Amino acid sequence: MTSKRIATALCCAALLACGIAEAKRLKIKNVPVDLFQGIDPFGNLDGGAYPGFVKISINLNNGNAAITGRANVPNLSGERAVFVDLDVVGFFTFVHDRYVVKRNGRAVYHGRYKDVII
Question: Domain containing 68: what range?
């Protein structure tokens, strides 16, 4: 799943949510994406696109969003790798993100964005 598909899904969800005046937060769980990257033998991102699942939470009052995700990716370095503020998703107004890949290849992503809903 590409970034465009995630953006389209978020926009569609936002339009659906606009009809619900009482809602304050929209949560979309288990969205399959191919955005996770593995780790090469030197501890750098390998540029791959491995499948995983994300949860998207949008605050309908202020337009802020939080994206969290998990996947299993190859970690050829055998060491824990942490990457901060990469702007992995690449759309909306980026605030902060953190991508961690453990020794066993378990990858966790946490990102915050603003101005998701205009």
Answer: 3-114
CA distance 20 to 33: 27
DSSP-derived 3-state class of residue 7: helix
Nearest residue to 68 (alpha-carbon basis) of 104, 105, 93, 31? 31
Residues in the chain: 118
Q: pLDDT tens digits for 60-99?
A: 888 899 999 999 999 999 999 999 987 766 667 788 989 9
Q: How far apart are CA 91 and CA 97, in angstroms?
A: 13
Closest of 114, 60, 53 to residue 87, by C-alpha: 114
pLDDT of 87 reads 72
**How far from the centroid of its chain's Cα atoms is residue 44's Cα?**
19
Write the burial class of residue 102 (CB in 10 Å: 0-12 exposed, 13-18 middle, 19+ buried): middle
What is the three-class DSSP state of 101? Answer: strand
Number of domains forming the structure of the chain = 1
